[in-house]
Amino acid sequence: MRLDQFIDDSMDAILAEWEAFAGTQAPAADQMSPLALRDHARQILSAIALDIGTLQNDEEQLAKSQGLAPDAASGQSAASIHGALRQASDFSLLQLSAEFRALRATVLRLWLPHVSQMNAQAVQHMVRFNEAIDQALAESVVTYSARADHTRELFLAILGHDLRAPLSSMTTAGDLLSQVRLEPAKVADIGLRVKRGARLMSAMVEDLIGYTRTQLGAGMPTILQAANLRAIGQAALDDASATHPATRFDMQAEGVLDGQFDGVRMQQLLTNLLVNGAQYGTEAQPVRLRLTGSAADVTIAVTNDGPVIATESLETIFSPLVQLPGVDPDARPRTSLGLGLFVAREIALAHGGSIHAASSEQAGTVFTVILPRTSAA
């Protein structure tokens, strides 16, 4: 059987294996639907089958081998779009490449039993198929890298933007403190400003360190010890209140909240969720922290009553460097580097737990974390 015909006839079987393999690419795939896992796989396979069945001269074959196919330059091929979407879904470049490696192996493994004789035509089809797979991979890598570069530049711009506020406040405080005469009450107020600015920059640095470690493959450092989430929650509430003094925070705790946790990391997780709630919530309603312990696990819920988050945004909200669409950079909450929720997710995963978000007019925006009370980091 011709390879291009086999791909068209066996599309569903090939796509099923693509989806199954893509689903193993954790942690990004853990939050993705089957439709998102398949992404543009059907269009990629159709383009490959069409390419195999299309006559090609030596110059066209050489151009394709060098990544100079017409669709590659425009960035509008299915493979190009797939690369950009996989980067947006927090797939690593290695995971993106592995998808095409698995696709190559799947197609050949399923097709070869239908080849009655390995003749010149079958060999030529294999050569054309491998060329097409390599071309699709190259197109995906180009758009993946371009989007990653853009995201990195955007992140640096956001970092500079968000550091200006606390640095400006601390500079002003230094100018005031350098004055010869200053009332004691003003000194205390200036001290609070400096402390708040230091907290803001410290939170940014902690998130940056956590993000960098995960990107370097070191993972989120986690040391499990006996800890109580009620005490950790109160400490996180104090941190969030100091960062956002105008926001009200409420905490409810019930059930058994003792377990094996990394206290430092859990405080960071809770603080990030509370600060996020303060940034995007409303001053009329408090940000609510609820801790519920059961025999097997502990559930953490942080709720704010800000604007409803669209479903498509919820699917990527835990990816690094993500900013909610429609938010003006100058009006965006300070310290919103797009890392807080990513770090919270990594901490939850390091504890063997999970995290997800839901948003509606009735319930508000709720971030729910479920952690086993005892687990190996």
Entry summary:
Helix content is 58%, strand content 12%. The chain is built from 14 helices and seven strands. A hairpin with a 3-residue loop joins strand 6 and strand 7 (364-372).
Question: What does this entry look like structurally?
Answer:
- The chain has helices at residues 3-9, 11-22, 34-38, 41-52, 58-65, 70-74, 78-88, 93-111, 120-177, 184-215, 229-243, 263-280, 311-314, 340-350; strands spanning 225-228, 249-254, 258-261, 287-293, 297-304, 354-360, 364-372.
- 58% of the residues lie in helices and 12% in strands.
- The protein has 377 residues and is an alpha+beta fold.
- It has three domains: 3-151, Globin-like; 155-215; 225-372, 2-Layer Sandwich (Heat Shock Protein 90).
- Helix 1 runs antiparallel to helix 4, helix 11 packs across helix 12 (263-280) and helix 12 (263-280) packs antiparallel against helix 14.
- A hairpin with a 3-residue loop joins strand 4 and strand 5.
Task: Using brief descriptors, characterize the structure shown.
single chain; 377 residues; alpha+beta; Globin-like; Heat Shock Protein 90; 3 domains; 7 strands; 58% helix
Would you spell out the secondary-structure blueprint of this structure?
Layout: H1 3-9, H2 11-22, H3 34-38, H4 41-52, H5 58-65, H6 70-74, H7 78-88, H8 93-111, H9 120-177, H10 184-215, E1 225-228, H11 229-243, E2 249-254, E3 258-261, H12 263-280, E4 287-293, E5 297-304, H13 311-314, H14 340-350, E6 354-360, E7 364-372
Parallel strand pairs: 2-4
Antiparallel strand pairs: 1-3, 4-5, 5-7, 6-7
Helix pairs in contact: 1-4, 2-8, 4-9, 7-9, 8-9, 9-10, 10-14, 11-12, 12-14
